[in-house]
Amino acid sequence: MGRVVLTWSLEPRNSAPDRLSIVWREEGGPRVMPPARRGFGSRLIQGGLAHQLDGDVTLDFAPEGLVCTIDFDLPDTAEVGQPMLPLGTAA
User: Fold this and answer.
1) Single pTM value for the model
2) How many domains are there within the chain?
3) Residue 26 neighbours by CB under 8 Å, 6+ apart
4) Is residue 31 part of a domain?
5) Which residues form the domain of 10?
6) H-type alpha helices, the chain
7) Residue 90 lies in a domain
8) Greater model confidence, 87 or 18
9) Do the domain assignments include residue 34?
């Protein structure tokens, strides 16, 4: 049986917004094969999520398991005056 390992790290930067990196890594499941074509889900994750966050999203179809990396700059909440999104809401 496989599992998903979710990790994140925050890179504080003085002259630019802090950068958040989230990594979704699948382990111990069946071997992964890169898809023959990009389907709706891949396009939504790579294009839509990257656009929504104004960041970068990569999908690595490694044989040991899918690795999805999401990197984006965090908005300055002092400028916004509120959290990014209230809990339970969507952009």
Assistant:
1) 0.76
2) 1
3) 2, 3, 4, 5, 32, 65, 66, 67
4) yes
5) 3-80
6) 40-43, 50-53, 77-80
7) no
8) 18
9) yes
Would you say the C-alpha torsion 27, 29, 33, 35 has a positive or negative sign?
Answer: negative
- 33 contacts 52 by C-beta, under 8 angstroms: no
Give me the pLDDT at residue 64, please. Answer: 94
pLDDT of residue 88: 55
Identify the helix (H) or strand (E) that includes residue 58: strand 56-62
Q: Which of 9, 26, 16 is nearest to 54 (CA)?
A: 16
Position 51 in a domain = yes
Q: What is the pLDDT of residues 25-69, one digit of tens each?
A: 999 999 999 989 888 988 888 888 888 888 999 999 999 999 999
Structure tokens at 10: 């925050």
Structure tokens at 76: 């300055």
Tokens at residue 89, please?
A: 């809401």
